[in-house]
Specification:
It is built from 12 helices and 15 strands. With 342 residues, it is α+β, with helices and mostly antiparallel strands. The two termini are 45 Å apart.
Length: 342
């Protein structure tokens, strides 16, 4: 009998879709914060916000964004939110695995399994906020109007320590995040460097590839066009990153869009340029857009801010709007983020 009861608990954890059960309890999927391996869900009635994932053993698991002690399996989820003891939880969940299961109000595919390290990344990103006017990024010359552009909605975030976070995605979904602040550059502990990209990556007019997210934003701020899509690789090129970048370049080429290589003005930037050219499909149009001043695009942006006449001349030469803000080149059009590469 004890074994049967234990087996029943195991079935609850393995067979019931936690996202579907949460949806039946009023939680809605926030699509622009979710990816293949992590769903962010929120209930309007009490503003409760959770992350739903799938453990390596196939169990559905959740994490509260606001309470680090509120996490676990579907059993913990029911106990915490309905105040039930274990016997009451069994009665609550049995209809979900019975011969005549409950009617699912909303079919939601389960997240792909993820490691404990990735799940820590999920928690940090879900607890962060979109950085519409991040103090550090503004101090680096990046105007709030650029940060609030729909292309960057949700992919520039800020944590409680004032750090700027840039989520990276691989084929499984959210994999890690770059961390930037005054005098500090890092990457999430346990996270994996992959690719950061703007939300319009699937509707690209030009694909601009930079070494880091702040370089990409600096290019967008200084000389970018409203239809440009951006991607960066955090200054490294692992075999996994190369594979994903090859896919991104292939998709842009299929759409007939050019690649703009905006890597740094140094040897590593030249090496990255050669790698990107080698990854690009045959026949793809490729342009090199080197920073005009300094080593990288943020150096160049700072120079432009200090020398506005040169900035204006550069914009006129490129046929783009000057000044960069306050006109039609500011906010862009509304787009839906597309986290996670398929």
């Amino acid at each position: 009998m004890r074994q049967q009861r234990s087996d029943e608990l195991e079935r609850f954890k393995r067979e019931i879709s936690l996202p579907e059960y949460a949806a039946s309890e009023g939680y809605n999927l926030i699509r622009n914060e979710s990816s293949r391996n992590s769903y962010v869900m929120q209930r309007e009635s009490d503003n409760d916000k959770i992350i739903v994932a799938t453990a390596q053993d196939g169990h559905g698991i959740y994490f509260s964004v606001r309470d680090n002690q509120d996490n676990g399996s579907i059993i913990d989820f029911v106990q915490r939110r309905k105040g039930m003891n274990l016997g009451q939880v069994r009665k609550e969940l049995r209809p979900w695995i019975g011969a005549d299961p409950v009617q699912i109000p909303q079919k939601i595919k389960r997240p792909v399994p993820s490691t404990a390290d990735r799940q820590k990344v999920f928690q940090v990103i879900a607890a962060s906020q979109p950085a519409g006017a991040h103090e550090y990024l503004v101090s680096r010359g990046i105007h709030p109007e650029t940060l609030q552009d729909a292309r960057f909605a949700g992919v520039i975030r800020g944590d409680q320590r004032g750090n700027a976070l840039f989520p990276h995605y691989d084929r499984e979904g959210l994999s890690g995040y770059e961390v930037k602040n005054d005098g500090f550059t890092g990457f999430s502990g346990g996270g994996t460097k992959s690719v950061w990209y703007s939300t319009n990556i699937g509707r690209v007019e030009r694909l601009v590839m930079a070494e880091t997210a702040i370089d990409a934003l600096s290019h967008a701020e200084s000389v970018g066009r409203p239809g440009d899509a951006y991607a960066s690789f955090a200054g490294s090129m692992s075999p996994e990153q190369l594979d994903i970048l090859k896919t991104v370049l292939g998709q842009a080429h299929e759409a007939g869009r050019p690649l703009v290589i905006a890597t740094d003005n140094d040897k590593s930037g030249s090496d990255f340029e050669l790698q990107l050219r080698g990854l690009a499909p045959e026949g793809m149009t490729i342009e090199r857009d080197s920073p005009r001043f300094g080593n990288d695009w943020n150096d160049s942006l700072v120079h432009y801010i200090e020398h506005p006449k040169q900035w204006a001349a550069e914009c006129r030469a490129r046929g783009i709007q000057w000044p960069r803000h306050g006109g039609s080149g500011g906010g862009g059009t509304e787009l839906t983020p597309e986290p996670g590469l398929q």
